[in-house]
Amino acid sequence: MDEKHDHRAMFSSERGHDGFVERSRRIKMAAEMGLARSSRGRHWSRALRRRLLRRKGATSGGSCGCKDDSSSSKTVEELGVGENEDDAVEVEARVHALQRLVPGGEELGVERLFEETADYIEALQGQVSAMRALACLLDELERDKRVMSG
User: Fold this and answer.
1) Count of CB atoms within 10 A of residue 69's CB?
2) Where is the composition biased (Basic and acidic residues) (predicted)?
3) What is the pTM (predicted TM-score) of this model?
């Protein structure tokens, strides 16, 4: 094989990789947008949609259109969670972790954060089920394709 041919094969492979990465990015964005649309009335879905639109450059920023719930909901201390200081610190750390995981969670007080977290987990479970079904379908199509060509 000559050097020129090797270069074309490498370039083609790089373009194939770029195409794969672009398709993967689009699939991820479509899955996340579907997740955001599945629970339109929830704070996390509006926050996720806002983040996705910002990623696409289609928004001018700003709020998700919902009120700030941090002042209207109780804090960890007000809930009386944890008998000692170590327990309270641990609970506070876990609440902060949830606030980072749930889209828009940083804006929520503890009670509302727990409600949004439960709803978000249910939506994620639905998304996982749909992706598993899609993966099974694609596996079957690939298997049928191999059987028909071989």
Assistant:
1) 17
2) 66-77
3) 0.62
